[in-house]
Amino acid sequence: MKILSGHHRLKEILVSKALLACALISIITTVSIVVILCKEAWSFFQIVSVREFLTNPLWTPLFEPQNWGIRPLIYGTLTVTLGAIIFALPLGLGSAIYLSEYASPTTRNIVKPILEVLAGVPTVVYGYFALIFITPLLQMFIPNLGVFNALSASIAVGIMITPMISSLSEEALLAVPNAMREGALALGSTKLETTFRVIIPYALSGIVASVVLAISRALGETMIVTIAAGATPKLTLNPLESVQTMTAYIVQVSMGDAPYGGIEHLSIFTVGITLFMFTVMMNLIAVAITDRFKIGE
Amino acid sequence: MQTKAQSRYYIWRKAKNEIFRGLFLLSIIVSLASLAILLYGIVNAGWSSLSWNFLNSFPSRFAQLAGIKSALFGTLAFISITAPLAFVIGVCTAVYLEEYAAKNWFTKLLQINISNLAGIPSIVYGMLGLVLFVRGLDLGRSVLAGALTMTLLVLPVIIVASQEAIRAVPQAFRHGSYALGGTVTQTAFRIVIPTAMPGILTGTILAISRAIGETAPLIMIGALTYVAFIPTSPFSGFTVLPIQIFNWVSRPQPEFQDIAAAGIIVLLAILLLLNAVAIGLRNKFRKKLQ
Fold first, then answer.
1. Which pLDDT tens digit goes with each residue over B176-233?
2. Reported pTM
3. Considering the domain B53-289 in this protein, what is its CATH number?
4. CA distance B225 to B156
5. How far apart (Å, rounded) are the C-alpha atoms in residues A83 and A246?
6. Which CATH superfamily is domain A71-296 in?
7. What does the DSSP assignment read for B59-122?
């Protein structure tokens, strides 16, 4: 850079600083999110004790007497997430294995873009689908199932995260060197044995990372659960009940007319930071797993 | 000579392979079938409500009279701010990370931070927008507040996609430019970015289509659910297509469910169109680099 004449050098420095400024916006975003959530949650805990927040089994903020126990919302979130993963894991993994190990290139080229479409459908559409199609279908098999229930939302969230698991896992499977495949097949293994005993163990960290990211996505999913899972916070893991998730509570309050700065309003930030901690944990686990994967290569 | 037990075992292994092959195929079929059922169900429910009047009317208490004019214009208004803003900031960040940044702890931190931002639930961005833009900058429940919130939301997606596109530019292109006396900046802006542009645009279009479909953050910042006007300035109140759909879905009357389906058809049509453009660009990009 020394050989550059004065104004060229100045230009280089100015441009690189301007670009750095753009890059810093993402850091500022993260810092603002953490600061804002912490600040409002702090005000909340001036009124409600941390002890009540963690131990009270009731969450009844919108009627007297108010109870501020977060657990019902966490249970609601976990019920939906668990249901979604039970649904999406076999489907996503099965699709990934079929596409990477069994399918012809033609099939793969046709199926992959269609699965991408599935990943691009807005969540409000899945919410509509859960309420109008999945719930009535479930009611044919489970006659006393309510209109709003965690199961229907779980299935819709599951459909939503399946393409995420399948495309990320497929990438991990395709990254396995062909020599591994050929070696196992040459020893007389069937494709299935090759897949389960050689390919999947090799790609395991990539597959696990994809599932962790999908879990994180399901935890933060908002519109499907707002539309289909109901608005009744309950300390239950029964998927047939109407529940409320953390995200659905946040939407409920911000659509109502709770005054800005009031306790109800502060509570959404406290719920928000709880949700934030769950998802950040999942994302960091995924990053740690993929980092190990890269070193292993 | 194989014993009988050995050959039976062999047949069983072959059979197991075929059974699982079927199961794997079945899981793809279930995914594809759910997409087909979803599309069929929505078109079936909403097709009859779809008309020019539906596109060109404001929302109404009566389902037959209601339309998505204000939602369409609201979506258009916030995208026309979000798209250029997110594109410029996203590409600049990606160029910085790929072409300028030294390999040190700070760059690593930036990178981890960006992948973490991509995983934060959209509703948390809504809370950020509410405090930062609606209250902090006092923009109110305006198009601008919504557009800025959405810019932050889609930035990580654009950055990651642009980085990938920039990384795919062959090293020889850069060396050629340096050999001719080009500076880092000249190389980045005249060689690398133009070559990577189709890839960057593909990522941007996909990010924009995500923004068009997002509902939760805009509910948080208070995009209105009943708007009978077209936003005329960045400071107008507004609604968007997904919020209008959500509003109709949450009503108990079946006729509103049907116009919700009609709204979904319009939304999906817009998104499919954008996706088709993105896929076209991607194919062009691949051919060019080969």
1. 888 998 888 888 888 899 888 888 888 888 889 889 988 889 888 876 666 767 777 7
2. 0.87
3. 1.10.3720.10
4. 28
5. 16
6. MetI-like (1.10.3720.10)
7. --SSTTT---HHHHHHHHHHHHHHHHHHHHHHHHHHHIIIII--SSHHHHHHHHHHHHHHTS-H
Strand partners, A68: A59
pLDDT tens per residue, range B114-127 = 888 888 899 999 99
Q: How far A210 CA sits from the closest chain B CA (Å)?
A: 12
Chain position carrying tokens 């509703």: B123
- A contacts of B220 (beta carbons < 8 Å): 250-251, 254
Give contacts of A257 with chain B, Cβ < 8 Å.
none
Residue A220 near residue A247, CB atoms below 8 Å: yes
Nearest chain B residue to A148 by CA distance is B250
Q: Hey, where are the domains in chain B?
A: 4-49, 53-289
What pLDDT, on a 0 to 100 scale, did the predictor assign at position A295? Answer: 46
Of B16, B34, B152, the CB nearest to A192: B16
Sign of torsion over alpha carbons B151, B154, B158, B159? positive
What is the spatial distance between Cα A87 and Cα A106, in angstroms, rounded to a whole number?
27
Q: How many inter-chain contacts (A to B, CB under 8 Å) are there?
A: 250
B267 with A125: Cβ contact below 8 A = yes
Q: What is the pLDDT of residues B2-46, one digit of tens each?
A: 677 778 888 888 888 889 989 999 999 998 998 899 899 888 887
Among chain A residues, the shortest Cα distance to B278 is held by: A113
ipTM above 0.90, yes or no: no
Residues of B in contact with A159 (CB under 8 A): 31, 34, 38
User: Among residues B80, B73, B285, which one has the least CA distance to residue B166?
Assistant: B285
Contact B112, A284 (CB under 8 A): no
Q: How large is the average pLDDT for residues A10-32?
A: 88
Q: How far is A236 from chain B (nearest CA, A)?
A: 24
